[in-house]
Amino acid sequence: MNGLHPANIGFAVRQKLADLGLGARLFLRLLGFLPACLKRFGLVRDQIHFLGNYSLAIITVSGLFVGFVLGLQGYYTLQRYGSSEALGLLVTLSLVRELGPVVCALLFVGRAGTSLTAEIGLMKAGEQLSVMEMMAVDPIKRVLAPRFWGGVIAMPLLAAVFSAMGIIGGWVVGVLLIGVDAGSFWSQIQGGVDVFKDVGNGIVKSFVFGLTVTFVALFQGYEAQATPEGVSSATTRTVVVASLAVLGLDFVLTAMMFSI
Description:
Elements (H helix, E strand, L loop, with lengths): L5 H27 L1 H6 L1 H12 L3 H24 L7 H39 L2 H7 L4 H40 L3 H11 L2 H28 L5 H32 L1
Helix pairs in contact: 1-7, 3-7, 4-5, 4-7, 5-7, 5-8, 5-9, 5-10, 7-9, 9-10
């Protein structure tokens, strides 16, 4: 019953509100450091390489296999209605609208988000961030901001690669293995996919997911306790919070896009 004591509940609520306030302030500071990051774009470029290039293998392979599955499932579903020629359109819309941004973001959480949290948490545990503050160097501006904008830029690029590989996977299964007409496969895509409505919505989603995942990873690492257990717990929280945030934001963004 001690856990349900009003004082304990009030303390927990106050602590969560304080965390929200710290997160909001950190987020605004990271946004405000965009001009400084553009002036020293080499730092951002290195993070794009670290977060994007090193995630490329898992994104490429996962996108290809997702395309394989969509090609199989889509063909046997459309065949029941005599619409197997629309397989290319089904695969492409599924990828650029939903699966590309969402699955890519979840993979990005596991690959890049955890590494960001562990890196920042270990820097805090090793007092490297404190040393930078002692030298009058803002660690948020020098360490967190380039990683933040690197992740934001890398995420839409990775989502585009994921969707492209998924379409290729659907083509391999549908055209090469099953025997769907190649001309119908590609013509349905060209005629049915709207660049601004379909591809544009996917880009917006991937951009928002990039902001969310990268910020959650950096915030958890920056606020982690300076112990091995604290860094481990922060890494776990990054996966849980960022994954739930991606799925929740996907529903909100989809509802907003279809209502416009």
